[in-house]
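Appendix B, example 12.
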Amino acid sequence: QVQLVESGGGLVQAGGSLRLSCVVSGRTFRSYAMGWFRQAPGKEREFVAAISWGGGRTYYADSVKGRFTISRDNAKNAVFLQMNSLKPEDTAVYYCAAAPRGVPTDEEEFDYWGQGTQVTVSS
């Protein structure tokens, strides 16, 4: 069984930064690709970033490219999302997710999900 717990969300002014963390329980963390998704009020959940099991490959949504950085620490069973130059349109609940194969960007490829952490960016 794999459990994911996100933290690090909060309220920040536009232009500010936040770092989200996701700690994963389960001995198979190293074999999973990890991703971050977000869901804004009234909108569908969307892909933000993904990272391969070894950390060598990363993918980003165009809307966050150059501002967000995904990373992982397999020794700590954790994945991170550093968010810089935040904009009000980044306001959403952010979810981390684990995928057993590849480095997908489609949420249907992810088997395990956290409960989400709220990020609010004020203008």
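The first strand starts at residue 3 and ends at 7. The radius of gyration is 13 Å.
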